[in-house]
Amino acid sequence: MPGYGTCLAFVLLLAVVPCPSSSSSSSSSAPEPAQHTLGTGSSLSVEDHWRPFLTSPDGTFSCGFQDAGENAFSFSVWYTDAAEKTAIWTANPGAPVNGRGSRISFRRDGDLALDDANGSTVWESKTSGGGGSLTISLLDTGNLLISDSDPSTGGRTLWQSFDWPTDTLVPSQPLTKDKKLVAGYFSLYYDNDNVLRLLYDSPNISSIYWPNNPINDPFQNGRTTYNSSRIGVLDDNGVFLSSDNLGVHASDFGPGVKRRLTMDQDGNVRIYSMNASTGGWAVTWAALGQPCSTHGLCGQNALCEYQPSLRCSCPPAYEMVDRQDWRKGCKPMFRPVTNCNQPPSPSPEQQFKFLRLPHSDFYGYDLQFNQSVTFEYCKKLCLKMCLCVGFSYKLEGQGVCYPKSILFNGFTSSAFSGTIYLKVPIDFDASAPLVTARSAAGLACDPNISVIVQRSEGTFSRTGNGTKWPYLFAFAGVLGVLDIIFIATSWWFLSSKQSIPSSLEAGYRMVTGQFRRFTYRELKDATGNFKEELGRGGSGVVYRGVLDKGKVVAVKKLTNVPWGDEEFWAEMTVIGRINHMNLVRIWGFCSQGKHKLLVYEYVENESLDRHLFDTDRTTLPWRERYRIALGTARGLAYLHHECLEWVIHCDVKPENILLTREFDAKIADFGLAKLSKRDDGAGDSMPLSHMRGTTGYMAPEWALNVPINVKVDVYSYGIVLLEMVMGCRVCDQTTAGGERLQTPQIAQALRQVVATGNVVPLVDGRLQGQFNPRQALEMVRISLSCMEDRSNRPTMDDVAKALTACDDEDEHPAYR
């Protein structure tokens, strides 16, 4: 069959056209001279993002367009010599502009403005009307400055970036009482008591967590409130001095080093120093020594543990709110008390019990502080308090008791001698498998989330006592029947009440769904009338959109969808429950008549084919290739074996493997083929009305008119895996006679590679030998097995396990 070719330049096929190399020369114009100062009327198009808008006179800093994701850019200032353009200031953090048609302009009226592709102004300096002699300059300090050069005005400054810091300070840039560094929910700022602090401030809860012991007064933490200047400055020697008596210095103290102080996304403040030879950054001071000292990383009701990397977990009787985001914490698996105005009946002792978590605590939110009390007294105190959700107790020569109103900032550490006791209903079975309650709630499974809980006698797992399984199955069956009755009743209600308002209808429909149903008008407005195209494929066109709260999303406008509104909604409520770290998350959908759209998370770093086959780009390093191969295998294994609905992708190819900023793989376009029900059996097949997929990646059985099963994805994955090794399209390669290679020829050549172990001639030459031979040989072996007859192909579960076993630097949990 045509379309199954490769460039195997060894043994059997000696005259195959080799893969293109990125070393081929390309013409480029000479760089333009650097500009330090510009007058009004100057501008820069995002298409010229390779050219800086301004450069400081000594060349230390540059400003211009900075890559902020797939087809997304921000206007920033950065250190010129840095290996990565780490921004020290950004005009539009969190609101990137399109990579085509956007522009930064120093307008004739003196306003510096950033315009998106649709003509909207994303950000502006608001300096219009300042006069006709305005200039914009980038100083040697990194300060972007708009000033009036008219001598009669004394050269006044109208605007400067130092007055609007984002998440970073550079030497000589002051942090003052009316400024703060912000990264997500975290901020560094001066409090009303004149002390520099770190604050976690989410929509639901706030907490100060630095100085290191917020319970102490400022003087116990080495600070002073007796100052009114409220100013902190990082100097050229790497010393940061604050008016509240804080003084710290970088470990490489001394002049001549380029540094920055940054509020990082993990809630820690660090000083970074640049390596002059490599341009890389190294941490030379950090405010917090342990990640768990930061508040909010694991969310409410969750525990943080460092062993030796950060790990979040839910305590017993609690489960994750969102399996993709630990910041949302955990929720109780029981009904908490909501009405404290009524007297308890029966007594609290008959209603509640306590679960013990040794070496654990939740910081703050104490209802009382009791000293020199017994454990029993502390326990009864919490029982009598309606708002008490647990209590902390420890012996420090005397008993210390802290009843808690909120479980926040939890941690587990062997160095901590105290114990937290969680208040739960007396009929709650702590030994029951936690997965039972999750299944009853209708959540999709996620094998990558492990929940370890502790009791006084040690650690126990989900499996619990085997003698309880019949009761658990019976309980789950009853819940399932009730769920079906509820869904059927809701469905009948919707279909029979034709006069129900559309707003209420959407609410009823989402009772059984876990993501949002959008209107066509909402998505039309969010995409600017579908103006900014990100890409297109056989199933539709993808557009960039921005939702009401500024969240950037990808909106896919589907074509040739045969389903009606009810059928489409039913399909999407199933697909919306599919959730895995290596799958693109679906946030919602729209189904209004002929309009069928999907709303996806926005993945920043484009698709694998752009990085693998584009010879104008920097060669994709081997470490990233292997990580992408492993992540893709894990995502497909989840679809095939481990989610509630057994899903065949039907179009696995590099274009459908999207990459995050850290080059983690996320599979797109899954679930658009028909779903096969779990009760049909994982090995059974499903009929499809027509061929699906892309030439070059389609398994041979597509042309044989036989029922299709998950092994078509395994075949396609094998082709993609081989392309990651070779760095070129398999289907584009021909023999010396100009004929495309066939699957048997490919398999024969790969067998010789596996037999001899000589994989070097097959590996992408652009890597210049920088690859892991053991991993490359394993990838070739797996690729060969994926091309076998479908009955002999491995499962994606087997593939993921094999790749994990060969991964020397696997940072993911052990694959199960």
Q: In short, what is this structure?
A:
α9 runs antiparallel to α13, α10 packs antiparallel against α12 and α11 packs antiparallel against α12. This protein has 816 residues and is an alpha+beta fold.
Estimate what percentage of residues fall within beta strands.
25-35%
Could you name the ranges where pLDDT drops below 50 across 5 or more consecutive residues? 1-18, 20-31, 432-473, 489-514, 674-684, 686-690, 810-816
CATH superfamily of the largest domain: Transferase(Phosphotransferase) domain 1
Q: Report how far the terminal alpha carbons are from each other.
A: 36 Å
Could you explain the architecture of this structure?
There is one protein chain. With 816 residues, the chain is α+β, with helices and mostly antiparallel strands. The protein has six domains: 37-163, Bulb-type lectin domain (Agglutinin, subunit A); 168-293, Agglutinin, subunit A, CATH 2.90.10.10; 303-463, Hepatocyte Growth Factor, CATH 3.50.4.10; 465-503; 504-601, Phosphorylase Kinase, domain 1, CATH 3.30.200.20; 608-805, Transferase(Phosphotransferase), domain 1, CATH 1.10.510. 19% of the residues lie in helices and 25% in strands. The chain has 13 helices and 46 strands. Strands 39-43-44-42-41-40 form a six-stranded mixed sheet, sandwiched between helices. Strands 3, 4, 5, 6 and 7 form a five-stranded antiparallel sheet that branches. It has a five-stranded antiparallel sheet with strand order 30-36-33-34-32. Strand 12 and strand 13 form a beta hairpin. Helix 3 runs parallel beside helix 4 (469-496), helix 10 (711-726) runs antiparallel to helix 12 and helix 11 (743-756) runs antiparallel to helix 12. It starts with 36 loop residues before the first strand and ends in an 11-residue tail after the last helix. The model is unreliable at 1-18, 20-31, 432-473, 489-514, 674-684, 686-690 and 810-816 (pLDDT under 50).
